[in-house]
């Protein structure tokens, strides 16, 4: 069976888990704590990023962008209406732009700060960077989240799905990131009703169910985290 | 004619310029100073990243990853032996892994620090972040460059081209970044003879010639920058 090195609080890992679930590809999940810099994991992925997908021939695919393209080429092409990258090159570019937006820009502006300060630092030993959260980093993440939420609200108000008329990688990249932030109670859904409606639709999909069961040690999710009607 | 918003000191812009030259696609080059946050440019690319490619139908493609995939789908497929993404999904994944490595990881660890501190801060007005270089950021970039150079040396010692037997996007992503660092005299080529041999081969290609003529105001390149025999 293929395996996926991931972390429940890694937005990019959640994106790929959602895609694998959508395509009904069974995968062994292996939780990786990248800050431990395990030698075997470094050999798989010298960039030390998550997720890493290892297929049945033991080829390693590093990073969500590389994995998403590989899955499109080897699985998506056979999915017809359920393919998560459209056929048209211009439409594909819009899906990729937004997928990057959520996995690179939202990650950089918001997610990495809040996850690092609120979750990873609790799990890390002190000599590897663990300790109390840095209030400046928390503030940066919390300031930036509003602009992102407004953009998502605008996109979802103007389109059926995140990148256009059909469900795509862009929806699952966004949902992967927002579900991490929602776990931490960092999203004020009442400020973004269109985004909330879209998230409710994605969250109700069977592919999402396993993520609703994710738990991190010492850090329970907000009470509405697993509610489909939040 | 299509156009490309770029900056001569943006590694990702250089990558796409090299690809466009390899495929002999004439393009209008428009220099963009992203720190000015021009309203028209923000409308094209709200992420405010370079490069942005605008095709003849005035569709905008934002970011080198999105542009590279679009060019592969609309141009690469007709290039036969000269196609810069191989056909095989596993080989494509290795090209994409390394392309990301140079455009994301090398950029994050090294290039952005050195370019920002040594070039952009000279060009920026003070209220937009201009001023004297930050010695801590310079030191970070210069420390990290050695490890990257060793990795490139190892890759090029073990392979004909960066990602395998054939010339690919990975070569041009690496060359885009290294040529910026070389312009600034930040690379000690004598420490990396295999990397140097590889760079000499890429630099000698006709697609590279226009880059050798790039100049930035107030900042001449090192004397060997345009030498094919450095």
Q: What do we call the CATH topology of the largest domain in chain A? A: Glutathione S-transferase Yfyf (Class Pi), Chain A, domain 2
Q: Flag low-confidence runs of chain A.
A: none
**How many domains comprise the coordinates of chain A?**
2
Number of helices of chain A: 8
Structural class of chain A: alpha+beta
What CATH architecture of the largest domain in chain A would you give? Answer: Up-down Bundle
Q: Looking at the chains present, what oligomeric state does this protein adopt?
A: homodimer
Query: What average pLDDT do the residues of chain A reach?
Result: 96
| Secondary-structure element string of chain A | EHEHEEHHHHHH
Please tell me how large the radius of gyration of chain A is.
17 Å
The largest pleated sheet of chain A is described as: 4 strands, mixed
End-to-end CA span of chain A: 35 Å
Largest interface: A-B, 23 and 23 residues
Counting DSSP E segments of at least 2 residues, the number of strands of chain A comes to: 4
Side-by-side strand order of the widest sheet of chain A: 2-1-3-4
Q: What share of residues are in beta strands of chain A?
A: 5-15%
The percentage helix of chain A is 40-55%
CATH C-level category of the largest domain in chain A: Mainly Alpha
Shape of chain A: globular
